[in-house]
Amino acid sequence: MLKANPETLNEIKAAHSVMQITKFYHTTNEFLDEVYDFFMESDKNSLLFTDNKVIFKKNNQVVKTYGILKTDFSVDGLTVARNLFTIIPHYEVTSSGGGGSSSNNNNNNNNNNNNNNNH
Questions:
Q1: Cα–Cα distances in Å, from 60 out to 25, 41, 47?
Q2: Checking phi first, is residue 60 left (phi over 0); if not, alpha (psi -120 to 50) or beta?
Q3: How far apart are CA 34 and CA 31, in angstroms?
Q4: How far apart are CA 112 and CA 79, in angstroms?
Q5: Residue 47 and residue 35 in contact, taking contact as beta carbons nearer than 8 Å
Q6: Rounded to 5 degrees, what angle do the CA atoms 55, 58, 62 make?
Q7: Closest Cα to residue 49, out of 83, 86, 19?
Q8: Strand-pair partners of 55
Q9: Which residues contact 44 (CB under 8 A, 6 or more apart)?
Q10: Which of 88, 92, 11 lies closest to 49, judged by CA?
């Protein structure tokens, strides 16, 4: 839980963003307080969460990186700022054996049309 007691709209938005992180990553109270303070320093500060790290950015410049454990594997990451919370969804890559079937169907249709025209 945050030690801060948000009162202004910006503080409430920052606190909300910080608490949303806990739905996807294992965090400590100290980490949440650090993130909240980081967001309150500037509205241009942001975090990028990946599978195993969190990147602190000021004006899109990396200022520090920590290792972190993800608890929700339905996401590949998060982009978080005081007024922003974006989930990067996880996509399963699948392969399909029917890669040329559309082309083959078109060729068969063309051959059938040619045969019908020849009669």
A1: 22, 14, 9
A2: left
A3: 5
A4: 53
A5: yes
A6: 40
A7: 86
A8: 48, 65
A9: 58, 59
A10: 88
CA–CA separation, 71 and 32 (whole Å): 16
What is the C-alpha to C-alpha distance for residues 30 and 51, in angstroms, rounded to an integer?
20
What integer pLDDT is reported at residue 69 of this predicted model?
97
Total Cβ atoms within 10 A of residue 64: 11
pLDDT tens digit at each of 119 positions of the chain: 788 899 999 999 999 999 999 999 999 999 999 999 999 999 999 999 999 999 999 999 999 999 999 999 999 999 999 999 999 999 888 876 555 544 444 554 554 455 555 55
Q: Which two tokens stand for residue 63?
A: 């200022």
Q: For residue 53, what are its two tokens? A: 């790290």
C-alpha 114/C-alpha 116 separation (Å) is 5
Q: What is the pTM of this model?
A: 0.74
In the structure encoding, which two tokens stand for residue 4, read together?
Answer: 């801060």
